[in-house]
């Protein structure tokens, strides 16, 4: 634990600035929690003890020298970073043998901004290889376990970030979301996870999977921490041409933050279909009632093309992935296997040896849908369906302010259950992929529990989706919901309980 | 070319069948843009730097790096498009073109596929033939793979990411000579547009050729692409080899020899083309829209600003020099040889208001100085003689302060950096002598013993006077005003004719 039970990043910073504890003490608590729990959870691929300690000492020294000096928005806050975000001098393995020893020569904008806000990066978290997966089982370095039940998956691909936050090893972490990779693990681990509007957080330094879908997003145990992190990492970046020319996301500050009077909440039949787990349905319905209690009005909306979202996503994302991952050829960086001595032989041997099966599957799929003669029937059509999905949302948002539903159709599933069945695994993202294709902001916040095996409860996530650029509105609804409920408070009990 | 084919004008005529064959040629020309930094990152662009010293995470394709478009490159590309009279698209986009090779770090090249920034336009050849351009697009250059330094292939990424424009022509060219003329014209335009140096030796201009042959008047046949053409001479030689090769293949009637759709490499040492890959081995580039770059939107204001920065092009300048300034075609050509010389000439002409004199001095005397290895000036702008100085010299001649002979001497001193013409003239006492008494004395002296000249002049053959002007000039040390000398001589001869008092 971070040493202050229930404390979030905002609390920790305030305590450090008030002189109640030092940055070094805060960091040591975080490192101790990692030491204690990560052996069984496997959330971290590396823990940067030395650099983190040096930084904490430096922050404390700075504070001691001039207590009145401005302190960054994350002063002394320990943060974990997903293994696909580059940080100079730190290995960025991206869950892959291909990059097992890759040290980036530069730092991602979002990480740079965390550091500029005086955060302390404590380590690099596990993930499905190249962010392709929903369970951590596609990591080349072994799976991460769900802190609520060690036999279950934490979700993915930001698996380690979600587990680290849920287990109290760090208060906040960065993940990345291409088709749900922040929101789904957040839901399955019982923490908050936010995917911003496409373009609000720089992708510079995020190792690309699906470039038109990828967004960096925070995971945290409170909505205000999500807001705090977003305030730091969002905002225009000249190093990313798809970054929107907008200032950082600022929290909306209504007169009565606990109320949602006049808010129109869309409920889509397509999101609460027959495939939904019964306990997830119950928890989400209760959440919707809670929103109505807070003054919101539920309005039925239609998102008719939702059924096509998964196939569309697996064409668009794999096409882009096949291109983005072409650079891993053994020439300039990453793993290399010489093969038969020819150039093509080296390319083939390197890629054959260092990519895992799921990555290979997606590269093949993406290569196929872009190839001559098939391009229009697959990739071209997927782009047209993507436009229809976007239009579904535009029409719905003419009538409502946000759309609410479940984040994941099921709570955490047992490790191994879906590993051999790609389509079952892909179905984990059914409810998160449409928003990714449309580039919209969405958050997952804890909204209850399903009963897992024995006495271990499994968290359920409520997804709140907003129209483009309404990031702050989504967070305000999440904050009101959080303040009216206790679902975010329970923490997974210590190791072994779920076994 | 075998003896069975004989070149007649633009055609190759078969001695066997009598068929008149013509070439069908299109060119794809890559030109590096003269930007300070690369197309998608801020790395410096420089020829000859140590390998991999001009690189960064973006142009080495590091994971997580992203391209950001260099607006300067876009400006130069647009200027080139305007210079060839092409249409500039209000919106265009970048695409990824995929192929695996060690000199392209991402294993895709950011290029433009189905919506280039520029379509249409063209170049007119001296024959009047208009060669249409299909399109011009922007793309990034590849690095260099070096295979001849030992066991391993070395990769230098200094060039990776440098801004290129690729100009694709229609197959409107027929002969190797036309292909070279087109390339020279395109090179001239790129240089005049300030878009690039287009130096083939430095790899700043690269060319692929598409060529087929057909009997005159008949439909097009299968085309072949030729790569590895590193100079205009290679382009000509490759076509001089390839066109007869294809004709002879058709004439042989052997189906195995018939030209097929393929890419061939030119072997400069052997002067032949060889199959590199056939259509079956053709690459599938799997183009799709570059998701890391938003579409390129060109506002009218941006395009007009580029138009304003575009100087008048050589063809238009030559016409204007002939028609408005009354210069000869030869002088017009010499003066437009490079943009620097043309700009220099125009500055001189404007300053002194005497375009013909300016043309003479720039095209003759100054060009000679420029060609002089001892002067060692790389371009006209490097000469110590600035347009203002030359204009002053021309004015001194026009005002009669010095004569042409003296002016040449002064220019020589100016080129050597001895100062402004007025200073040189004053220092060296080169002013023309206008003083009546001195001139008359020299004239009387010269007329002594030249009664025949005087007689000829009196008989109306005034040209004969020239034989006396020379000795007067000589006596004056070249400083006499020849116009005044002529007048005085005529007066003296006329006076001599009067009955003496």
Output the keywords.
A: alpha/beta; Amidase signature (AS) enzymes; 15 helices; globular; disordered C terminus; B: alpha+beta; Arc Repressor Mutant, subunit A; 3 domains; twelve-stranded mixed beta sheet; three-stranded antiparallel beta sheet
Explain what the structure shows.
The complex is a heterodimer of chains A (499) and B (501). Chain A is α/β, with parallel strands linked by helices. Chain A has two domains: 4-265 and 407-495, Amidase signature (AS) domain (Amidase signature (AS) enzymes, Alpha-Beta Complex); 306-386, no CATH class. Chain A is built from 15 helices and eleven strands. Chain A has helices at 9-17, 23-41, 49-65, 109-116, 159-166, 183-189, 223-233, 278-293, 309-324, 343-354, 357-370, 375-396, 422-427, 433-438, 471-484; strands at 44-47, 78-82, 120-125, 172-177, 192-195, 215-220, 264-268, 297-301, 402-406, 442-451, 457-465. In chain A, helix 2 (23-41) packs antiparallel against helix 3 (49-65), helix 5 packs parallel to helix 6 (183-189) and helix 9 (309-324) crosses helix 11. In chain B, a hairpin with a 4-residue loop joins strand 16 (262-267) and strand 17 (272-278). In chain B, helix 6 (329-335) packs across helix 8 (355-371) and helix 12 (436-447) crosses helix 14. Chain A binds chain B through residues 84-86, 92, 94, 99, 102, 104-106, 108, 203-208, 211-212, 238-242, 319-320, 322-323, 326-329, 331-334, 343-344, 347, 367, 370-372, 375, 379, and chain B through 57, 60-69, 96, 98, 100-102, 105-108, 153, 155, 157, 284, 286-288, 291-294.
Summarize the topology.
The complex is a heterodimer of chains A (499) and B (501).
Chain A: H1 9-17, H2 23-41, E1 44-47, H3 49-65, E2 78-82, H4 109-116, E3 120-125, H5 159-166, E4 172-177, H6 183-189, E5 192-195, E6 215-220, H7 223-233, E7 264-268, H8 278-293, E8 297-301, H9 309-324, H10 343-354, H11 357-370, H12 375-396, E9 402-406, H13 422-427, H14 433-438, E10 442-451, E11 457-465, H15 471-484
Parallel strand pairs in A: 2-3, 2-4, 7-8, 7-9
Antiparallel strand pairs in A: 1-3, 4-6, 5-6, 5-10, 9-11, 10-11
Helix pairs in contact in A: 2-3, 5-6, 7-15, 9-11, 9-12
Chain B: E1 5-8, E2 11-14, E3 20-32, H1 71-83, E4 87-88, E5 91-92, E6 95-98, E7 108-111, E8 118-119, E9 122-124, E10 130-140, E11 144-146, E12 154-156, E13 163-169, H2 176-192, E14 205-215, E15 224-229, H3 232-252, E16 262-267, E17 272-278, E18 288-289, E19 296-297, H4 300-309, H5 314-323, H6 329-335, H7 339-352, H8 355-371, H9 387-398, H10 404-415, H11 421-428, H12 436-447, H13 451-458, H14 466-475, H15 482-497
Helix pairs in contact in B: 1-4, 2-3, 5-6, 6-8, 7-8, 7-9, 9-10, 12-14, 12-15, 14-15
